[in-house]
Design a protein that fits this description.
Layout lengths: L1 H9 L3 E8 L5 E3 L6 H4 L10 H7 L7 H8 L4 E6 L7 H16 L6 E5 L2 H10 L4 E6 L2 H9 L7 E4 L6 H9 L3 E2 L7 H10 L9 H9 L1
Helix pairs in contact: 5-6
């Protein structure tokens, strides 16, 4: 939560977060599938109760509902659904659970729900026909596949910075899609992306980007 609060203080427009599902159906906010790297404690998120996660992370892994409750109205949310494959029941359960949390928080208009798996956006859109959906792409193959679909039912395209080109931005604009490349931290690269006309940049240092935009 500390990083999210700092992003709000820095003047960021949106915060990016990854969500995972607990066996007790709690939706937690954490990038990694385990606690090992960040907290030096063993355990896969998918196998621990939320009480165990709180204990082993010293309370530093929040629930999605907690993040939305505290920050809604102050900033928008880019929610990445960490689903390995939607055809697996866990992916469907995570998308459904995430949708329920967003709905109960009244944050449908504030949350961009995105995933590397195109089907996640389609499933979320089936719950909320006017939901804000995004497709994350990290390879030329994935971009080509999504592009052939015309990015149908997606409001935003979220490409890795290596895939960002003026041509891609122009295509997204022509189709009425937003584009949010990730992760761009260098000043030169950020300026180039902004010059292309991107709608936002995913960065590890929002304060620095806001400063550059205000200069």
């Amino acid at each position: 939560m500390t990083a999210f609060r700092k992003a709000v203080e820095a003047g960021a427009d949106m915060i990016e977060m990854d969500v995972r599902l607990r066996p007790d159906h709690h939706v937690v906010v954490l990038h990694d599938a385990t606690l090992d790297r960040l907290f030096g404690k063993p355990g896969r998120i998918s196998r621990l109760s939320y009480a165990q996660i709180k204990e082993r992370s010293d309370g530093k892994v929040p629930l999605l509902s907690e993040v939305l409750a505290e920050l809604r109205g102050k900033i928008k949310f880019y929610v990445e659904v960490k689903a390995s494959r939607l055809r697996k029941s866990r992916g469907i359960e995570l998308t459904r659970a995430t949708s329920k949390v967003i709905a109960s928080s009244g944050a449908q208009k504030d949350c961009l729900v995105a995933s590397f798996h195109y089907a996640v956006g389609l499933l979320y859109r089936s719950y909320f026909p006017k939901g804000w959906t995004g497709c994350i792409v990290g390879s030329k193959q994935a971009l080509c596949k999504a592009s052939k679909k015309g990015f149908k039912n997606m409001d935003a395209i979220c490409p890795h910075q290596k895939l960002l080109t003026p041509r891609l931005v122009a295509k997204c604009k022509a189709l009425g899609k937003q584009i949010f490349p990730w992760v761009i931290d260098g000043a030169k690269e950020q300026q180039e992306a902004l010059a292309m006309g991107v709608d936002g940049i995913v960065t590890n240092d929002p304060a620095a980007l806001v400063y550059r935009l205000q200069k």
